[in-house]
Write a structure and sequence with these properties.
Layout: E1 6-17, E2 24-35, E3 39-43, H1 50-57, E4 65-70, E5 73-74, H2 80-90, E6 91-95, H3 106-116, H4 123-130, H5 149-161, E7 168-172, H6 180-197, E8 201-205, H7 208-212, E9 216-221, E10 224-230
Parallel strand pairs: 3-8, 3-9, 6-7, 7-8
Antiparallel strand pairs: 1-2, 1-4, 4-5, 9-10
Helix pairs in contact: 3-4, 3-5, 5-6
The structure holds adenosine-5'-diphosphate (ADP) and magnesium ion.
The site of adenosine-5'-diphosphate (ADP) has 12 residues, from strand 2 and helix 1.
């Protein structure tokens, strides 16, 4: 029997911050498997451990105990150089606050991801090719302050996807700074990219609209997984992915 391809697997992952009286276990004993091609929403109230968990999976931070396997590689014990190489190769990040470089244009922000990944030669062509796919054709040379919040988040999505094959795109509350119409469009865009490119998405939210459209919802409370629900009827978000506002 063919086994499914696991993008990442966490076994009993715990992350404790601080020590002594100030000790906080932000996530506790998390077991979680993400399979290739999944579109998973991590839900939970503020403080439930969503960002901490995403930082573990994205290799931005190391667990206090437990094990993480990312695309077949056990992460524990890797040097920080090996870890940053793994991260650069395999993971695309999208943040709530977009994290664009303000003095760079849209195309330059996207190029930067490839330059940092050690692939400067292909950067410009790849950046120009991907921007129309996220609905930003014609806006390539604008700076972030000349773009709406929704458009800035599209640049951030292009930046996460421009690496040839990020095995996983991690988005930490990507719609939190957007109004509901723009939030819905960004969600629709990610669903379309998941369907057409097969990119595996994992993102956190406490937005009920996003949760309603997800096929898999992992819920956190106080640092623990309290439910992991797969639904067949995760409806695509309605807004057209090509619309820009
Ligand atoms: N760097 C840190 N130092 C100390 N405590 C932290 C740190 N980061 C997060 N925490 C604590 O861990 C818990 C989970 O936080 P977080 O992962 O940011 O949750 P969420 O993203 O769901 O809001 C919270 O109690 C938070 O205060
Ligand atoms: Mg958070």
């Amino acid at each position: 029997m063919a086994s499914p391809h696991f993008i990442c697997k966490l076994n009993a992952v715990t992350r404790v911050y601080g020590s002594g009286a100030t000790e906080v276990a932000a996530i506790k004993d998390i077991d979680l498997t993400i399979e290739a091609g999944e579109f998973t929403v991590l839900s939970g109230p503020s403080g439930s451990g969503k960002t901490t968990l995403l930082n573990q999976i994205g290799c931005l931070d190391a667990p206090s105990s437990g094990e993480l396997i990312l695309d077949g590689t056990a992460v524990a014990g890797l040097s920080s150089r090996a870890l940053s190489h793994l991260r650069g190769e395999k993971i695309g990040f999208i943040f709530q606050s977009f994290n664009l470089v303000p003095v760079l244009t849209a195309v330059e922000n996207v190029e930067l991801a490839l330059q940092l990944a050690g692939r400067p030669d292909e950067a410009r062509a790849a950046a120009l090719a991907i921007l129309p796919k996220v609905g930003l054709g014609g806006l390539e040379h604008r700076r972030p302050n000349e773009l709406s919040g929704g458009q800035q988040q599209r640049v951030a999505i292009a930046r996460a996807l421009v690496k040839k094959k990020p095995v996983l795109v991690i988005a930490d509350e990507p719609t939190a700074n957007l109004d509901s119409a723009n939030g819905e469009q960004i969600l629709a865009l990610m669903q379309e990219l998941n369907a057409t490119l097969g990119t595996t998405f994992l993102f956190s939210t406490h937005d009920p609209m996003v949760i309603a459209h997800a096929r898999r919802v992992v819920s956190l409370r106080d640092g623990r997984v309290v439910s992991d629900e797969r639904r067949d009827g995760g409806e695509p978000a309605e807004a057209s992915a090509a619309e820009v506002s």
